[in-house]
Design a protein that fits this description.
The chain has 15 helices and 30 strands. The strands form seven sheets. It has a seven-stranded antiparallel β-sheet with strand order 1-4-5-6-7-3-2, sandwiched between helices. Strands 15-16-18-20-19 form a five-stranded mixed β-sheet. The relative contact order is 0.09.
């Protein structure tokens, strides 16, 4: 479907470029070992120690901790056959699952696709060569390995793509090996359109930042430390860009993505931007975070906390610092500590930890939030995932979530990986931090972001992302015994229930594509924030409701946790509903749950997630509604247009935007009341400047800017109508 236009696939790098990239990595690793760590910014006192300490753990890790860049494969005379779809089906008794994207290239393979077992992540690239043509990899560049993971005898390799010495944004490849070592699953968001001549910058990084500030105004604050050069790709082009990070100035449901990443071409063109919780820091660098735990002596303390009129008994580790004689909300075993949001976010990552002279003086809100993060940590560790990265990355919990004027932001969020910390934030006293499912929701964002090595937080990609956080958040809360809820609600213990996985209509979420609460995907969702950025929260029910469906059909909480955790390891940033059906089938097989595959198929069909979601929405109607479709002369014409439906009193009833196929679609109520349709055209995707307002005329045959020629419309139940093309 066309909403997958941003899907990009990869090619293979010539060996000389790979050798240069690996050489650069070795130099970086050497530098990390010789540069002193900077510990000047934390207010907690520690003592110096020359003693080496070794931490032993018998807990298995979900991911293989031997992270390394792949070496240059040894030249071999082996001839690697170029496979066709028929060849792959022949290898799998015609049972392979192969997903194609809109450009006609393969994006997902479930089934064996190489003629022999492979030895390691170096050798696994040979399997990619065999499906190069299917993936559309006529030209391009070789990816490098990020990490390996093993589960149930299967091995997973994750790769990211390079263009010269630059990492390509959101370009990730996953390869899975079965217990015999055969490549048996591939999922790709790598770029196939990298064959171009790199340009030299005509603007500086500072000028790129100024372009962002001029476009988005005073509420936008550039995080200059993270401005880098990268390669931006979409379905049509690839180009060198400056990648500029800012705060997210919009306080809406998307604010659990606290940053916006902007792409500015070397020539000064604003190319794209979207919200994210991911900052481009090196997750494998040694930032010296272990030093914050070395002088801590933990003791478990019990508290009775009253929240929303209910008394809650909690037991949390509080650590005594042997140097300064204070108590900290800190657990050295989990590598978890609580700090101040304002100081960290607005004072150059200054670490001011939550400390008291008496452990009974800690804020009840801070204690409860901290407690729930320990619960989320323990839940994931029980499923062999230590911290959000699987390697035991230290966790920093920031209380006092606020703007730069210290005005509280009533939310909790995942802030990504910063300076070696997996960072989370929560507002003081705000109830979302007082519910384990919502805390685990944010924790899961950290897990999925790390696994995918990138994020596309809009449209279907964002909805799937949010669905995973709801799913794992609810499973965690029930598995850990922190709720009596049987309806799979989100936030029910916080006093601010926000979603229902058992009955999405309760909170105005869709049950299928094209129903009254479904939000169409749109190119305008990238930047405007309209329609929940293409339904990232609202449309999440299309996947999260499937979890409840599987539970009601006999899957236990434990089985569901393994099923979804396994599928997390198989996704890349551009995987959409077509890819995820294949991913879920693969996860069912790996977990020995092949009996649920018919359930998956049935659910996918009932939710209308197969095929073109755009065409499905445009042709779906419902009793009591008329389906309205408005074509645009070209996608470029409708790219910055917002369609609005007004009632007879001039009140806005709904608004929508154009889908990727150039058609806007919505369900209008057949209530017997009159309505008017207007289109506002803007000059840019940020909707900062109105170009013109147009209205459907009285004859309903054209669009007019004459306010005296506005048409009145009465909608008919069950009807599908296409209005005149907007020129």
């Amino acid at each position: 479907m066309k909403s997958r236009r941003s899907r990009v696939l990869a090619g293979l790098l010539v060996m000389s470029l790979l050798l240069a990239a690996c050489s650069k990595t070795k130099e970086t690793e050497k530098q990390k070992k010789t540069e002193p760590a900077d510990y000047d910014k934390h207010s907690m006192e520690t003592k110096e120690s020359t003693e080496e300490t070794t931490t032993e753990s018998t807990e298995p890790s979900q991911r293989d901790t031997s992270v390394r860049i792949i070496s240059t494969p040894t030249p071999t005379p082996e001839v690697i056959p170029m496979l066709t779809e028929a060849d792959i089906q022949s290898m799998n008794n015609n049972e392979a699952l192969i997903v194609y994207n809109d450009e006609g290239n393969v994006s997902t393979i479930v089934g064996r696709f190489f003629h022999r077992p492979v030895k390691d992540e170096d050798d696994a690239i040979n399997a990619v060569k065999g499906v190069q043509e299917l993936l559309g990899l006529q030209t391009g560049y070789f990816p490098f390995a990020v990490y390996g993971m093993r589960y149930q005898g299967y091995t997973y390799y994750t790769y990211q793509q390079m263009k010269g010495d630059l990492t390509v944004s959101n370009a990730t490849l996953k390869i899975a090996l079965d217990p015999e070592g055969y490549p048996c699953m591939l999922q790709s968001s790598l770029a196939s359109n990298l064959d171009y001549t790199a340009s030299s910058p005509t603007i500086t990084a500072k000028e790129a930042e100024d372009i962002v500030l001029n476009l988005f105004g005073s509420g936008c604050r550039v995080l200059s430390n993270y401005t880098i050069s990268t390669v931006y790709t979409n379905y049509a082009r690839a180009l060198h860009c400056y990648q500029v990070y800012t705060n997210n100035p919009v306080n809406d449901p998307s604010f659990d993505m606290p940053y916006i990443v902007h792409f500015i071409s070397y020539e000064g063109e604003y190319v794209d931007g979207y919200p994210t919780a991911f900052l481009p820091t090196d997750p494998f660098a040694d930032y010296g975070t272990d030093s914050y735990f070395k002088d801590m002596q933990p003791t478990n303390y019990s508290f009775v906390i009253t929240i929303n009129g209910n008394e809650i008994d909690i037991n949390v580790p509080i650590s005594y610092n042997t140097v300064d004689g204070k108590y900290y909300l800190c657990d050295p075993s989990r590598k978890m500590i609580v700090g101040d949001y304002y100081e960290f976010n607005y004072n150059n990552n200054n670490l001011v930890f939550d400390s008291q002279s008496d452990p009974n003086d800690f804020s009840a809100s801070h204690l409860l939030n901290y407690y729930y993060y320990t619960q989320a940590f323990d839940f994931y560790k029980e499923f062999n995932m230590e911290s959000t990265d699987g390697f035991g990355m230290p966790i920093l919990i920031l209380d006092g979530y606020c703007d730069e004027n210290r005005k509280p932001i009533e939310n909790c969020c995942n802030m990504g990986i910063i300076n070696g910390w997996s960072v989370f934030a929560a507002t003081d006293g705000y109830t979302f931090g007082h519910s384990l499912d919502l805390v685990a929701h944010e924790y899961t964002h950290g897990v999925t972001f790390y696994s995918k090595q990138g994020v596309q937080y809009y449209n279907e990609y964002g909805a799937i992302n949010e669905a995973y956080s709801d799913i794992m958040g609810n499973i965690c809360e029930m598995y850990m015994g922190e709720t009596t809820d049987t309806e799979w609600l989100l936030g029910e213990t916080s006093g601010d229930e926000c979603r229902s996985m058992s009955y999405p209509y309760k909170h105005y979420q869709p049950m299928y594509v094209g129903d009254p609460f479904y939000i169409s995907t749109s190119p305008l969702s990238y930047m405007s924030g309209l329609d929940d950025r293409g339904g990232v929260h609202d449309n999440s029910s299309l996947v999260s409701h499937m979890c409840y469906y599987l539970y009601m059909n006999g899957m236990s909480l434990e089985d569901l946790a393994w099923f979804f955790l396994t599928s997390i390891e198989m996704q890349t940033p551009n995987a959409d509903y077509d890819d995820f059906y294949a991913i879920y089938v693969a996860s069912a097989k790996i977990n020995g749950k092949e009996e649920i595959i018919p359930l998956l198929t049935s659910y996918w069909e009932s939710a209308c997630l197969n095929g073109s979601r755009e065409k499905t929405a445009e042709n779906t109607t419902l009793e009591g509604y008329e389906r309205i479709n408005i074509p645009f002369y070209s996608p470029n014409v409708g790219a910055y247009c917002v369609i609005r439906l007004f009632d007879e009193y001039g009140n806005l009833y709904l608004y929508t935007t154009m889908q990727w196929d150039g058609i806007a679609t919505f369900l209008a109520p057949a209530s017997g009341s009159p309505f008017m349709i207007g289109i506002t055209e803007y000059t840019d995707a940020s909707l900062s400047t109105i170009a013109k307002d147009m209205w459907l005329n009285q004859d309903l045959t054209a669009w007019t800017n004459n306010p005296y020629d506005m048409g009145i419309i009465y909608f008919e139940s069950g009807k599908v109508t296409t209005f005149p093309t907007y020129q």
